[in-house]
Amino acid sequence: VEKDGTRVFTLRMQRGRTEFRDGVGTPTWGFNGSYLGPTLRAKRGEKVRVRVTNGLDEASTVHWHGMHLPARMDGGPHQMIAPGATWIPHWTVDQPAATLWYHPHPHGRTEDHVRRGLAGLFLLDDETSARLPLPKRYGVDDLPVIVQDVRFDGPRLAGDRGLMQNVGFLGDRTMVNGTLRPYRRIHDELIRLRLLNASTSRTYAFGFSDDRAFSLIGTDGGLLERPAVMDRVQLSPGERAEIVVRMTAGERVVLRSFPQKNYGDRWQQRFNGGDDSFDVLQLRADGRLRPSPDLPATLVPSELPDAEQAVRGRYFDLKRSGINDRPMKMERIDEVVTRGTTEVWTVRNTNGMPHNFHVHDVQFRVVEVNGKAPPPPLRGPKDTVFVPHGTTMKLALRFTGPADPDTPYMYHCHMLYHEDTGMMGQFVVV
Ligand code: C2O
Ligand code: CU
Ligand code: CU
């Protein structure tokens, strides 16, 4: 922290070697280390500045996924960092406590850079989150859970798609925080898991091996108005969920990903991951657990935009050929939105395969899914939503600026193979 209160972070993208399996070194990329990156953390109202140095031998960027910030600081494909160069974005945190993340965003190369290990968490805190009696001791009862699927090709991380795989690369096993076969000792009755799907293409339906219920307390952009009890939460690439699970002394339970019902047709289910299941993380409770306070009945008031106030609607058809049939072009601005206004965006997928939809700079409200009110996991602040085939979603978004007619933000499918091959568009706020 500097004298004027600015919180300063240093990130260096670099090559390394990681021993995922004993005695086998795998070439990987990481921030400040050989794989993944440090968890950054800042408070609402704080100024942050990040010194990002590119220690790779190819150009890349670092994007702050879920962060509300000026377009020039966003780290999208227009803020490339040459090998050896340093980029120093800065902004003031102006949004609620949340589990955000950061990753590269070079156009056409995002899948490759993320898959090699460039990703990390960016946690935000605020006064309300500090006051609420939630598990919040980082690494003790508040655990980061970065989920990635991988496949090993000898010592290397594979990155190729199978012949039947139209969603992108799919691994045959998962890692948590870069660890294979992970387990965690648990010392407290209530455990908060901050789930991030940092996989390039795979969607998960998380739950527990004994089907126990858990409480969803937060989505992509922060806490819900109240905890919602459920036994599955589905996360497509880029999405986050904060859940709280109750543990019993001495037990072992596994966080698992289950086959998904709403993923797609039989082809998609079978060959593109819908039917797959994985043991993701084993929780091993101590013989004695520290008591935790009960979850509060209410969490935070909603700050989500209101669809009634929308001044304009836009339509996004998710097609493999490009959103609205227009493949991404760096020099084309697709949409111009007016600062300070609310809009309703209708996102439709009739493309036969799963897609998702991510919008930079904002946290939006899901207003409708196929004409109905959204289910609880889609009621909180979202920046990325899963849009399986046959789905039409209405989103309410508010663009609060600042205005910058020359620098676009992105919207795209966050299945990174799709993003890289054209399912992305650009908007400016004026
Ligand atoms: Cu997480 Cu445009 O990305
Ligand atoms: Cu983003
Ligand atoms: Cu897609």
Automatic annotation (TrEMBL):
UniProt KW Transmembrane helix keyword: no
The Plastocyanin-like domain sits at 14-127, 309-430
Alphabetical keyword list: Metal-binding, Oxidoreductase
Tell me which SUPFAM superfamilies the record gives. Cupredoxins
Q: Which Pfam families match?
A: Cu-oxidase_2 (PF07731), Cu-oxidase_3 (PF07732)
Which domain of life does this protein belong to? Bacteria
Assigned protein family: Belongs to the multicopper oxidase family.
Report the protein name in the record. Answer: Multicopper oxidase domain-containing protein
